[in-house]
Amino acid sequence: MEKKIDLYLISGFLGSGKTTFLQNMLKNLVGRKVGF
C-alpha cells in the first residue's frame, strides 16, 4: 500500500502574504510532520 503525502507549493508576488500564510498553516498542523 502506497502512502500519499501532501505537498504544498507556495508562490506569489512580493508582498502577497506568503509568509503570513505559511505561519498560519504551520500553527494549524498539530500532530503532523513538516519538512522544508
UniProtKB/TrEMBL annotation:
Entries under Pfam families matching the protein: cobW
InterPro entries reported for this sequence: CobW/HypB/UreG_nucleotide-bd (IPR003495), P-loop_NTPase (IPR027417)
Coiled-coil regions listed: none
Domain of life where this protein originates: Bacteria
Residues in CobW/HypB/UreG nucleotide-binding domain copies: 8-34
Region forming the signal peptide: none
Membrane-spanning residues: none
Protein's name according to its UniProt entry: CobW/HypB/UreG nucleotide-binding domain-containing protein
Lineage: Bacteria, Bacillati, Bacillota, Clostridia, Lachnospirales
